Amino acid sequence: MNNTDYILEEKREKSKQQLMRIRNLPSIPMVILEVSKILENPNASAKDLSKIISQDQGLTAKVLTIANSPLYGLPRRVSTIEFAIVVLGFSQIKNLVYALTLMEAFKSNKTKSWYKKKFWAHSFVTGILAKRISDDLGYPKSGEALTAGLLHDLGISVIQRYFPEEFEEIVALVEKEEMLYTSAEERVLGLTHEEIGYMLITKWNLPLNLGDSIRYHHKPSKAKTNSKLAAIVHFADYMTQVTGIGDFNWDENIQLDNGIIDILGLGSDAYVGALISTYSKVLTDEYKDIYQ
């Protein structure tokens, strides 16, 4: 191991230890436990579930925003959580609650370079696009794709909340040396936001599929548990940058992992290009005002 590798490994271990020592690092949020408990009851009703969700106004607003998006194409506006549960189903609502609650757990304004509205919009668009891609490609768990898309950049929000000085150092390094954010993260922390997100999913004992999709959303061909889910999230993430709809500065210069062609059975570069063109039109027509 050369000196540079040694320094990086030292930083990596230090960051891991600091992350694990954070006393107020959220345990899995109570609303998730309550929702899970209700869903385990075969006699639970939409009304029972809506009572839990409706206690949190911010969560309620975000669930309704997604339920009313063109993604679902519902014929009438969804104005209550109970109606959202009825039309979307318990499984979809569970995935939404899990993702949105975990995102909220790390919300803060500790860093001047943190654009939280853009981050939420990017997570939102990546999530709904991942669901649409999974539906179109016949992936059987589109709700899982929605959750993975919403949470793929969870590690970035952790960095800005719990490592605010390092966050600003990463931003400055990118601006000064024109390097990728992930490269700057590694230089400063010894960890990338993908790895940090994966560590938290593991801490909360959430599904390995979800953890893998977060850890490898920039390089899905390396995913070990479910490369298809990671590939779907990667493709959605990539398209936010290509189209400029829901884009986020942390993904500047993101490169498409061509391994997704085989993973998702897309056939050829030409077909990938045609899909990008199709989804670009979808995003432009249906979602361009979401994050304005």
Features of this protein?
single chain; 292 residues; mainly alpha; Hypothetical protein af1432; 2 domains; 66% helix; globular
CATH architecture classification name of the largest domain: Orthogonal Bundle
Helix-residue proportion: 55-70%
Total beta-strand segments? 0
Could you report the average pLDDT, rounded to the nearest whole number?
A: 81
Number of helices: 16
Which fold does the CATH topology of the largest domain refer to? Hypothetical protein af1432
The CATH class of the largest domain turns out to be Mainly Alpha
Per the principal axes of the C-alpha atoms, what is the gross shape?
Answer: globular
CATH superfamily membership of the largest domain, which one?
Hypothetical protein af1432
- Which regions have little confidence, pLDDT < 50, spanning 5+ residues? none
Topology:
Elements: H1 3-21, H2 30-39, H3 46-53, H4 57-67, H5 81-88, H6 90-104, H7 116-137, H8 142-151, H9 154-162, H10 164-177, H11 181-189, H12 193-203, H13 208-215, H14 227-243, H15 260-263, H16 269-286
Helix pairs in contact: 1-11, 2-3, 2-6, 3-5, 5-6, 6-8, 7-8, 7-14, 8-13, 8-14, 9-10, 9-12, 10-11, 12-13, 13-14
